[in-house]
Records
---
Amino acid sequence: MKGTYLGEFEELLLLVILILAEEAYGVSIKEEIHRRTDRSISRGALHTSLTRLEKKGYITSDFGEATPVRGGRRKKYYTLTQEGKKVLEAVRNLRENLWKAVPNYKLGLQ
């Protein structure tokens, strides 16, 4: 996994974008994170991290159509790239291998 550092929050964002699929835009991502983790995040933190993930090549974004409900503004939708899927799989494999290496007694599972 050399050179593919992914922070915990970035990993969470990528997973939520996968869960939401075609409905992955700022507000829906924020709400899904809160619903699944009971973690509140600011819009600024969300957008900073989404921008960082896009610069790393893990996600892309496209604007949807303007809607009257949003005062004519468009939603910005996010999608994982192949590289984003690869890095998530690498993180998943790393975590699974590390958990498999933990002796049961360390978790009190004897």
Note: The domain at 8-104 is CATH 1.10.10.10 (Arc Repressor Mutant, subunit A).
---
Amino acid sequence: MSGSLPRPLPALDRDNAAYWTGGEKGELLICRCGDCGYYVHPPVRFCPECESRDVAPQPVSGRGSVYTFTINYKQWVPRLPERYVLALVALAEQEDVLLPCNVVNCDPDEVTFGMPVKVLFEQCEDLWVPLFEPAGR
């Protein structure tokens, strides 16, 4: 998938705005607890690990691995490719942070469990959607 594709866009709020706009500066921003260092996703201002409210978005490396995935074989809307990858990517910083995303810039049949990936961003209106591609590219 390349170029801006038709995709539903989230409504921004205080908690998720950094995640959806950080890509403008090339940053993947994930909420992190200032007290215990635990990463929190989906983004909320509460740490489920230590119950602190000192949680704020922090840049991460943008690296991870494919935790699980599926290949979609149906073109649900016009301009959407017939085959594309829907995945959960585990962040390198904390493997239990799983980001739902698309894996792009490779044939869907090349995607494997545990495959190293890196983030890139697709601008959609005023949002920057995090996508992932093979890390070797």
Note: The chain has a mean pLDDT of 93.
